[in-house]
Write a sequence for this structure.
């Protein structure tokens, strides 16, 4: 069996739909696109609160300026009414479309917009879409990053997860690095045969 990887990798695929929440700052979006989008971006969607204020417009223009220079698709700006959650979530779902691969960074923007976008992404993940959620701080000097595949969340919500599998999943999320079965078994104090069965179960559910 090959080494067990941290959960959330979608980089075997060719192109994907990049989704961001946008506030007054664009640095985190440009940083993520520069690091993750080269040769892989099919569409870019920016979710923000309406009405769109000047500082948000300026942030959007900064992103467009970068995508033009980098020969990336022009981002689609999607303003949503934070006072109407059902309509906002429906509008975000419409903007997400029917793509199969998504990479989402919800670092910026109003908290309500982040929550609505996350709900829409989880609903999209339930349809079988492969969605990687990337989080990082807006401050590049204190950037802390994490990635998780949202099918992990939907599996737990719909099927539940036993304690041992949860322990393995948590360990993989925390390390985020490839590990051999022998190393995992040693670190988690589990037998290799038992561990292989749990890893197989997790992989079948897109962990």
């Amino acid at each position: 069996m090959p080494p067990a990887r941290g959960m959330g990798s979608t980089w075997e695929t060719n192109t994907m739909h990049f989704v961001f929440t946008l506030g007054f700052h664009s640095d985190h979006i440009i940083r993520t696109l520069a690091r993750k989008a080269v040769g892989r971006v099919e569409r870019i969607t920016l979710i923000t609160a309406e009405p769109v204020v000047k500082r948000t417009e300026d942030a959007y223009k900064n992103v467009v300026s970068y995508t033009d220079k980098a020969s990336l698709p022009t981002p689609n700006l999607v303003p949503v009414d934070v006072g109407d959650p059902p309509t906002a979530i429906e509008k975000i779902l419409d903007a997400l479309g029917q793509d199969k691969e998504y990479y989402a960074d919800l670092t910026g923007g109003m908290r309500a917009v982040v929550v609505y976008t996350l709900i829409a992404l989880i609903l999209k993940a339930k349809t079988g879409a492969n969605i990687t959620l990337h989080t990082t701080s807006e401050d590049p000097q204190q950037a802390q990053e994490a990635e998780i595949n949202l099918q992990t969340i939907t599996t737990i919500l719909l099927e539940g997860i036993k304690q041992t599998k949860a322990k393995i999943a948590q360990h993989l999320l925390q390390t985020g690095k490839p590990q051999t079965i022998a190393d995992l078994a040693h670190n988690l104090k589990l037998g290799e045969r038992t561990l292989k069965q749990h890893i197989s179960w997790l992989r079948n559910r897109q962990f």
Notes: Strands lie at 16-21, 41-49, 76-80, 101-105, 130-135, 146-149. DSSP finds eight helices and six strands in the chain. Helices lie at 27-36, 54-69, 85-96, 111-126, 150-159, 163-175, 181-188, 192-204.
